[in-house]
Amino acid sequence: MSDPEPIDAKERVENLRATFESRRRVLVLTHDNPDPDALASAFALAAVLTHLTDVECEVGYAGIIGRAENRAMLRELELVPTRIHGDTLERFDAIALVDTQPGFGNNSLPEGQQPTAVVDHHPGRGELDGVAFVDVREGYGACATIVHEYAQVAGVPLPANLLTALFYAIKSETQELSRGAGYADREAYLSLLPRADKLAVARIQRARVPRNYFRAFQVAIENARLHGRTIVTDLQRVDTPDLVAEIADFLLRLDGADWAVCMGRYQDSVVMSLRTAEEEAHAGKVVRRVVAGLGRAGGHGTMAGGRVPLDGRDYEDVAAQIRERLIDELAGDAAEGESLVPN
Ligand SMILES: [Mn+2]
């Protein structure tokens, strides 16, 4: 789905300026537990808004930034987002939501509060009524590509750290332009390539990890079961919710696997991540059916995630219910399954 009435890139930037010109303090808010695409998009959008208008911008997030690469990205590029809590939002007279939408369930915009702007590339329409500036481009592999376009069109001289952040965002979000990337992503990537700090990118990608990172892989492999062409594992308790996505990516490398699913317990919820090697699949729809009536879910064609609050129930019971629905959905005739690596 594209814009019903395509508008010119210049017109769009003018709309962005007009939307924010009378605001004073803007919070650019990412989805919870933000990834490089969300963070780079937020910081670059803040720079664009500051350039276009006189607003003061801050980048905010909720949840945690856990993955070693993401922490290294902030450190190497000297980006300092604000962790929002309680009444943080009251300090701002406008909110711009990036890489997510109202009603998606993966951001901490308070229920009933509408942002001033939404910039996103995820499929599906959120609750966008009353949002002054909406730019949702489903065909884009990275949200960073959209914000990069604003910066180019508006003639914003982005500093080296933001150019590097945008480059790394597109690179990681599209797995080197191989996942969901279109023409615009390739153009943005190539334009950023000569200007990004490649040594910083290398340091980010090779970020050191703690011992419990290896422990998680051990648990993932020990608990992994193969149901036909679907591999499912459970990490039990995790310190950082994005670990389930990383493990799902890792397991999908198994020869012959079409789907990889990783679950875990984060605080009082089951978190899960789904990956598929099937180009035409609808991972988002699958995970929404799996958690229907239990929790929230969303995602792209080949990657999706969900979260189910325990609400006082046993983790094992809820995880078993999810696993059963998953196997029903993806591997009906292989319910029994077998260990990935038999002892
Ligand atoms: Mn994204």
What does this structure look like?
The chain has 343 residues and is α/β, with parallel strands linked by helices. The protein folds into two domains: 197 residues, inorganic pyrophosphatase (n-terminal core) (Alpha-Beta Complex), CATH 3.90.1640.10; 129 residues, Diaminopimelate Epimerase, Chain A, domain 1 (Roll). The protein contains eleven helices and 13 strands. Helix 1 packs across helix 4, helix 2 runs antiparallel to helix 5 and helix 3 packs antiparallel against helix 7. It is globular and about 60 Å long. The structure holds manganese (II) ion. Manganese (II) ion binds next to helix 2.
Structural class: alpha/beta
- SS element count, helices: 11
Please, what is the CATH homologous superfamily of the largest domain? inorganic pyrophosphatase (n-terminal core)
- For the record, the CATH architecture of the largest domain stands as Alpha-Beta Complex
Mean pLDDT, all residues: 93
Order of helices and strands: HEHEHEEEEHHHHHEEHEEHEEHE
The molecules bound to the chains, other than polymers, are:
manganese (II) ion
Total beta strand runs: 13
User: What general outline do the C-alpha atoms trace?
Assistant: globular
Distance between the termini: 48 Å
What oligomeric state best describes the polypeptide chains here?
Answer: single chain
The CATH class assignment of the largest domain is Alpha Beta
Low-confidence stretches: none
Spatial sequence of strands, sheet with the most strands:
11-12-10-9-8-7-13
Major β-sheet profile: 7 strands, mixed
CATH topology of the largest domain: inorganic pyrophosphatase (n-terminal core)
What integer value in Å does the Rg equal?
A: 20 Å
